């Protein structure tokens, strides 16, 4: 269905659209299966989302499990360094 998600930690289906809380990138996505498109609704969350649910009045609630730190943001902007840090040392 969707590849390359970083720790999707919550899914809510609303009127044929799939809303995804992606913890690893601290963002909310909207997937439209009918057109097979993904839109980023918010990639500036103050922390890491831990689930997503629609309320009875149609709002989406997204709990934040932990706040982002300056170190997280610094490392997130450096994919080459992240790859080096996580590479096997064998």
Task: Describe, in plain words, how this protein is organized in 3D.
- It is a single chain.
- The longest helix is centred in the last third of the chain and has 8 residues, at 79-86.
- 11% of the residues are buried.
- The chain is of the alpha+beta class and 90 residues long.
- A four-stranded antiparallel beta sheet has the order 1-2-3-4, with no helix packed on it. Strands 5-8 form a two-stranded antiparallel sheet. Strands 6-7 form a two-stranded antiparallel sheet.
- It is globular, with a radius of gyration of 15 Å.
- The protein is built from two helices and eight strands; from the N terminus they run ββββββββαα.
- The chain has one domain (8-86).
- A hairpin with a 2-residue loop joins strand 1 (8-14) and strand 2 (17-22).
- The model has no long low-confidence stretch (mean pLDDT 90).
Short overview:
The protein has two helices and eight strands, in the order ββββββββαα. With 90 residues, it is α+β, with helices and mostly antiparallel strands. It has one domain.
Q: What structural class is derived from the secondary structure elements? A: alpha+beta
Distance between the termini: 34 Å
What does the main sheet amount to? 4 strands, antiparallel
Strand order of the largest sheet: 1-2-3-4
Low-confidence stretches: none
The succession of helices and strands, N to C, reads EEEEEEEEHH
How many beta-strand elements? 8
Q: How big is the Rg? A: 15 Å
Kindly state the percentage of residues in helix: 10-25%
Average pLDDT = 90
What is the domain tally? 1
Number of helices: 2
Per the principal axes of the C-alpha atoms, what is the gross shape?
globular
Strand % is 35-45%
């Amino acid at each position: 269905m969707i590849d390359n998600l970083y720790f999707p930690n919550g899914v809510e289906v609303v009127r044929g659209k799939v809303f995804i809380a992606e913890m690893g990138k601290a963002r909310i996505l909207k997937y439209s299966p009918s057109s097979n498109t993904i839109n980023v609704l918010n990639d500036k969350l103050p922390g890491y989302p831990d689930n997503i649910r629609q309320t009875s009045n149609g709002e989406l609630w997204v709990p934040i499990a932990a706040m982002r730190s300056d170190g997280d943001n610094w490392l997130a902007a450096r994919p080459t360094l992240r790859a080096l840090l996580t590479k096997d040392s064998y």
